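Work Package 3 (structural annotation) set out to generate three-dimensional models for the target panel prioritized at the project kickoff. During this period the team completed the workflow that converts sequence records into discrete structure tokens, so that structures can be stored uniformly alongside our sequence database. As a representative example, we reproduce one entry of 166 residues exactly as it appears in the project archive.
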Amino acid sequence: MTDDQHRSPAAPLLRAPEEGEHIDVAGVAHFFRLTGEHTGGRFAFEEFSLAPGTIGARPHVHDAHDEYFYLLEGELTLHTGEGEVTAGPGHLLAATRGTPHGFRNAGPVPARALCLFTPAGYENYFRDVHAAVSAGAEATEELLAEFRGRYRTRSYPAPPENRKEP
């Protein structure tokens, strides 16, 4: 393939603040501003929020995509494969392929963050889980693991707590 075959449309895509796809999954409000359909599969971009006491994602590993989290408001407790750290606004987590990660809101206020998936495609995991729950399924760890497996993602056993502050 030539570079011309990988180019985006001639005009940039401008999305208004309310434009995007809302997907609520297991207590996390996902707002996908861009999906693979918008980017030729290159990446997906979302804003997400979760209330205090909510587990965003138990520890897991992606084998087919990278995720980058940028915290805007509140705090997230991030699982790093070696323990947990608490991150606040301005912190960035790069969860590249093969690296264990997870997150939860152990803080007293809602947390809001941005997430970039590259390449795109993992947004379909959230669509699948949302559809299953909407059809009456319970979002159990077994159900989530089944759907993760479809997107080359696997659960990761959490080590004993080893809390560090960044």
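The first strand starts at residue 21 and ends at 25.
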